From TrEMBL:
<protein>
    <submittedName>
        <fullName>ABC transporter substrate-binding protein</fullName>
    </submittedName>
</protein>
<keyword id="KW-0732">Signal</keyword>
<comment type="similarity">
    <text>Belongs to the leucine-binding protein family.</text>
</comment>
<dbReference type="InterPro" id="IPR028082">
    <property type="entry name" value="Peripla_BP_I"/>
</dbReference>
<dbReference type="InterPro" id="IPR028081">
    <property type="entry name" value="Leu-bd"/>
</dbReference>
<dbReference type="Pfam" id="PF13458">
    <property type="entry name" value="Peripla_BP_6"/>
</dbReference>
<dbReference type="InterPro" id="IPR051010">
    <property type="entry name" value="BCAA_transport"/>
</dbReference>
<feature type="domain" description="Leucine-binding protein">
    <location>
        <begin position="49"/>
        <end position="399"/>
    </location>
</feature>
Amino acid sequence: MATPATSPSVITRRGVLAAATGTMLLSACGRGEERDGALPRPTPGHELVIGATLELSGPGAALGVTQERVLAISTEAINDKGVAVGNLRRTVRLEIMDNRSDPRLAARQATELGQRDDVHALLGGTLAETSMSVIGVAQELRLPFVSLAFGDAITVPLAQRAFIYKVTPDAGDVARQLAQLIDAEGLRRVVLLAEEGLHGNSGVRAMTGALRTAGVGLARTVRLPKAGGDVGRAAEQAVAAQADGVVVWATAPNSGAAARALRKAGHSGHLFFDPGAVAEETLESHNALAVEGAYAIHPSSLAASTVANSSATGRAYRDLVSQYIRRHGAYSGFAPYASDALLLIATAARLADSVDRGRLRAYLQNQITDGMAGMYSFTPIRHSGMERQSLGVYRVDGGAWNRLR
């Protein structure tokens, strides 16, 4: 059994890149700067306007509401001093819309925001389907869009995703760590229970290959129905395969519902989650017994101790968690992807000395940033920039996510 530890490769990667990007992070967040003993203030009347289409209601609300809360806190922190863009210091203004977890509505909202001359970039879409519906609009309007969703198809093929970026981990990186973990636990056959849709499709492709490479048998692949479907039947099919463990590849709240259904159907063995499960809802009381002892692969922000306390990122992360708890109660550690998306856009504006959409896109795709969820390294040929070294192994113990390695 693995013991709690911090991955040396993560520390090394963070240490090297943080040294190169520390000034960038401080400037973009508006922290640590002084001018003649006085704090710099935003220039009146000048803004960096970012549109956001989020799942504040509907099936995606378990993820979307948390991201809205984090955005509010992070925007206040940035606007304390503003973002230095050329010879101006701009405040960030968010235009947030509830897409109600409806891809068609998300596309209409993206169109409405993108056709406004004063909107410089777009973020959002915690569900793969809503993010995918925004992509065509963002491409047509040449509007930089940073997606918060899971699903590799969001950023590929690159020729059709020139203005599209993603802050969540790639399925292949997650699957490799899951397969290695399953092998290390001594399991020889597992079932993959993957939700319907783009995120589940990415998981099926990635896990199939990763398990084969690790020498672990895939007993069966079962698809979870969309919200409101018969989760119990899918769980029964998974349990009938009599495997050593079950990998649930789904976003909250589907992850918790699948765990409950699996336990009810008689699965008492190992349970594994992809990062989409790591939301506050998954650890709530109605899921507590079902998910206790379950494993997950997730970026390092899930364990605050892995974010260096002396770094700018560490201080910003502690401030974020403190503010979140004060305003909304317990903070489960769900990675603040929206905060990082905001940071990436603000940093691009600072580096570009401009809020021009084309220049923002150019500086997004050439950016290395140590974010709160993990390390990002975007390049012209890679728009899903979460570094694989940012991922860690976690287990639910006593109703909380605890890092193993």
